[in-house]
Amino acid sequence: MSEYFDSHAHLTSETLYPHLEEVLARAQASRVTNIMNISTDRLSLIRGLELTELHSWVHQAGATTPHDVEKEGEEMFEKFAFCARIGKFKAVGETGLDYYYEHSNRVVQKEFLRRYLHLALECRLPVIIHCREAFQDFFEILDAEYQINGKAGPGVLHCFTGTVGEAEEIIKRGWMLSLSGIVTFKKSQDLQKVAAIVPLDQLMIETDSPYLAPQKYRGRMNEPAFMLETADFLATIKNISVEELILATTKNASRLFAID
After folding, report:
1. Which CATH number fits domain 4-256: 3.20.20.140, 3.60.21.10, 3.30.200.20, 3.30.2350.10?
2. Which H, E and C letters describe 137-153, residue by residue?
3. What does the alpha-carbon distance between residue 236 and residue 223 come to, in Å, rounded to a whole number?
4. How confident is the model at residue 252, as a pLDDT?
5. pLDDT tens-digit map of 75-121
6. Is 178 exposed, middle or buried (0-12, 13-18, 19+ CB in 10 A)?
7. Confidence of residue 159 (pLDDT cuts 50, 70, 90)
8. Which residue in 46, 110, 193, 259 is deepest, having the highest Cβ count within 10 Å?
9. Is residue 132 a contact partner of residue 138, using CB atoms and an 8 Å limit?
């Protein structure tokens, strides 16, 4: 049977970390055999690096999120850059732009997005992007700052919640588009239309644990084992078997993050 790849989880967050061994055991029992853990600050980074030493199937990426770059961006950039440069990361991120909450100044957000894109190019790593209500600025920066031989460098738009038109722009650039449990929500009809048009070879699945549990588990702390619900839902939308969907999305994540 096929194995799942949770392409984005915050295992070392304050919410999940106290329950980590139980969460990982349930993930493995549910055929989740790869997880991309996202570190966003000093403590989660320390925990994340230790976690991979204990569990080689948990991989690491890191960056300060757009929410926090005004407060912590300068302090943490070199720490994340050091890990990327010595091979501790499989990706750079999550970085990006968030104009919905705008917890950090837009100018500062754009500055750090550029810096992380340049870091990814330097280290030959893909980027993991958070973008909310900021796609025009994001695409402008991406097209200007993150090119390899005239094409967009590798990356994924994580936890996508944008429009069909924005999804088409991501697809056109050859990027991956990752969907979370949000797509299963009853009010997510527009996002379900996005799921229907994403080519299977550009689709990934994530939990974004501990956030955004799928409809069946709403109100509970999300965890990697719950991604089966999202996979089943997406397979129905795309009119394929769940095994075919799992095989494709795991292959996509493995290829993007260069994991055997």
Report:
1. 3.20.20.140
2. HHHHHHHHHCEECCEEC
3. 22
4. 98
5. 999 999 999 999 999 999 999 999 999 889 999 999 999 999 999 99
6. buried
7. very high
8. 110
9. no
